[in-house]
Amino acid sequence: MSHVFARGTGLPTVARASGCELWDTEGRRYLDGAGGAVVVGIGHGDASVAAAIAARGSHARNAALWGVLGAAVMTAATLVMAWVSG
Fold it and tell me: Is the distance from CB of 59 to CB of 71 less than 8 angstroms?
């Protein structure tokens, strides 16, 4: 079994995150080392990033996939802003 790409039951559940760290429901701390083609390593809970995402979402859309992803991006921005606001 791979400990890098774990699958199955009994995996930790993320309860909160800040910067590059995650905490599970048991209080254990993890370094968030996720990566991939669409992952941006900006950290978690940065209010300035959340505000920039929300502000950009209120302007003209020029992304090629906006028609497909627009609603998801706006929903994500709304959730991030709510989370950052506490």
Answer: no
With CA atoms as reference, report the closest residue to 51 among 18, 16, 84.
84
Which pLDDT does position 26 carry in this prediction?
A: 92
pLDDT of 3-59, one tens digit each?
A: 566 677 778 888 888 888 888 999 999 888 776 665 667 778 888 888 887 787 776
Q: Identify the CA nearest to 14 among candidates 1, 2, 38, 32.
A: 32
Joined together, the tokens standing for residue 16 give 């909160």
The residue extents of the domains of the chain are 1-44, 45-86
